[in-house]
């Protein structure tokens, strides 16, 4: 399956993607990585403007997004926590209206997932989740891409996660269910994953045979 079906769509959660779309994104990422190493990567998005709204600082996410955008000849514009009127109490609706008029895409790293939901509702351009308190879908995409590169196949793979049942855990749980990965999660008492995420993962797992 091609990823053309994602054109113009917002992605706030791994669950915004179908099984085929998630697998296709992983495969596309691997192909692009190989093309970059071989010096064959085509630059297709010249002139596009990508606004990076980061309410929380980042090293790897910001750098990887800016590098990727520039490799596509797009123009990333970074807006940190104190660089917008949001820090002075401006309603998020007003900020989104400015961004959507001057950008082709908004990539947001936010404190609250509800801000992303509001952005998607208000924006006429796609909104991509670069981390929220509920999910980190880009991290999960990169992790499963690496696993596929190393293991060759994801279906039936056994994955163990030890740590807080946090945003990364949520995206990995949903991704594993979509990809047919058997995932075990061990968390400290009081830090378990969201019951909402577990319920959604069970629905996907029934389709793919994940455990």
Automatic annotation (TrEMBL):
<dbReference type="InterPro" id="IPR002292">
    <property type="entry name" value="Orn/put_carbamltrans"/>
</dbReference>
<dbReference type="GO" id="GO:0004585">
    <property type="term" value="F:ornithine carbamoyltransferase activity"/>
</dbReference>
<dbReference type="InterPro" id="IPR006131">
    <property type="entry name" value="Asp_carbamoyltransf_Asp/Orn-bd"/>
</dbReference>
<dbReference type="GO" id="GO:0019240">
    <property type="term" value="P:citrulline biosynthetic process"/>
</dbReference>
<keyword id="KW-0808">Transferase</keyword>
<dbReference type="InterPro" id="IPR006130">
    <property type="entry name" value="Asp/Orn_carbamoylTrfase"/>
</dbReference>
<dbReference type="GO" id="GO:0016597">
    <property type="term" value="F:amino acid binding"/>
</dbReference>
<dbReference type="InterPro" id="IPR036901">
    <property type="entry name" value="Asp/Orn_carbamoylTrfase_sf"/>
</dbReference>
<dbReference type="Pfam" id="PF02729">
    <property type="entry name" value="OTCace_N"/>
</dbReference>
<dbReference type="Pfam" id="PF00185">
    <property type="entry name" value="OTCace"/>
</dbReference>
<feature type="domain" description="Aspartate/ornithine carbamoyltransferase Asp/Orn-binding">
    <location>
        <begin position="156"/>
        <end position="211"/>
    </location>
</feature>
<dbReference type="InterPro" id="IPR006132">
    <property type="entry name" value="Asp/Orn_carbamoyltranf_P-bd"/>
</dbReference>
<dbReference type="GO" id="GO:0042450">
    <property type="term" value="P:L-arginine biosynthetic process via ornithine"/>
</dbReference>
<feature type="domain" description="Aspartate/ornithine carbamoyltransferase carbamoyl-P binding">
    <location>
        <begin position="9"/>
        <end position="149"/>
    </location>
</feature>
<comment type="similarity">
    <text>Belongs to the aspartate/ornithine carbamoyltransferase superfamily.</text>
</comment>
<protein>
    <recommendedName>
        <fullName>Ornithine carbamoyltransferase</fullName>
    </recommendedName>
</protein>
């Amino acid at each position: 399956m091609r990823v053309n079906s994602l054109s113009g769509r917002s992605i706030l959660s791994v669950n915004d993607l179908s099984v085929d779309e998630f697998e296709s994104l992983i495969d596309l990422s691997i192909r692009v990585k190989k093309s970059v190493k071989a010096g064959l990567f085509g630059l297709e998005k010249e002139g596009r403007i990508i606004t990076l709204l980061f309410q929380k600082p980042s090293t790897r996410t910001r750098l990887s997004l800016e590098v990727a955008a520039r490799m596509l000849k797009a123009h990333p514009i970074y807006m940190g926590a104190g660089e917008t009127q949001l820090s002075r109490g401006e309603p998020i609706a007003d900020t989104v209206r400015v961004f959507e008029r001057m950008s082709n895409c908004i990539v947001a790293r936010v404190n609250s997932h509800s801000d992303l939901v509001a952005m998607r509702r208000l924006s006429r351009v796609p909104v991509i989740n670069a981390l929220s308190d509920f999910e980190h879908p880009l991290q999960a995409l990169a992790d499963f891409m690496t696993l596929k590169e190393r293991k060759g196949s994801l279906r039936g793979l056994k994955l163990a996660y030890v740590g807080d049942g946090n945003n990364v855990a949520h995206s990995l749980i949903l991704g594993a269910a979509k990809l047919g990965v058997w995932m075990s999660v061990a968390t400290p008492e009081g830090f378990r994953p969201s019951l909402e995420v577990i319920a959604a993962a069970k629905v996907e797992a029934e389709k793919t045979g994940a455990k």
